[in-house]
Specification:
The structure holds two protein chains of two kinds.
Chain A: H1 6-15, E1 19-20, E2 31-37, E3 43-49, H2 60-70, H3 76-85, E4 104-105, H4 106-114, H5 120-124, H6 128-140, H7 144-147, H8 154-161
Antiparallel strand pairs in A: 1-2, 2-3
Helix pairs in contact in A: 4-6
Chain B: H1 20-23, E1 31-35, E2 38-43, E3 48-52, H2 55-75, H3 77-81, H4 88-100, H5 104-108
Antiparallel strand pairs in B: 1-2, 2-3
The chains are: A alpha+beta, B alpha+beta.
Amino acid sequence: MAAAGAKELQRFCVIDGWTELRGARGVGRDHLFFVKELPDGRTLRTKVSHGTHGKDSYSRGLWKHIWSEQLGLAAESEFWAVLKLHRPAQRQGEAELQPAGPAVPGWLVQRLIHTAGLREDEVAKLSAEEAEERWLEFQTRPQLSDLASAPASAQALDDRAYGLAVG
Amino acid sequence: MGRGRRSSTSRSGISPQDGPSARLGGEFSPAVTIDPGEVSIWLPELGIYGRGEDFESAKADLLDETRTYAAQFRASEALQRASNRRHHERLVGLVEAADAEGELEQILFAEPAPVG
């Protein structure tokens, strides 16, 4: 099943009886905001975010957060059923909602890109666990300044950087 | 090339010289998903997200969204009295205080405080 885009999400909000927060467009961006009060006391809120550079559909991971946590649906199929049948969603209790899968913590991505010097495509391939390992590895790796005290060949510097014995 | 390694012995790399924002690590835990051509960051504590074509633009979008949510929360009785948002009162206060100090990004992306 394909992830929805901004058009589908906005259409869902209209059919499902959400209220647009007027005068609340995102700063410098083409965002719309909607809220919906539920009979059980919860108030849902979502942002309809139009993508950049023509990419409208949400990524799979983000899309799961949107339909499950922002729209309060128990299954993605309920979203598409609203659009297809043109009638409001039949929501279940909060307890049935499942969290989306794991992603890499923001602070860790920040450190890996800005401090350790990894590229985004390298970070993209890491699981949360692997990302943490890379960060710990970076922190414990000797710095070039640590190695500069003794004159050595490039090979010896390499060996020391990777924790190998130097004669 | 500076590596930025710190002399602190903490696992997270936070030293006593770091500002209050770093020591508040753990209040927010943004989760990043990187896909080809799009980066998204989900902030579970407030149920909001930012997205962009790269990490920096997604982060900027999340900062905008966090400020927008804080303003909407203050202006909306429906959000304040909602059973699933009452605990946001404290977090929104934290966001407002951090933003006033120019430390919103540091608060959102602070490393978790060391355990123990």
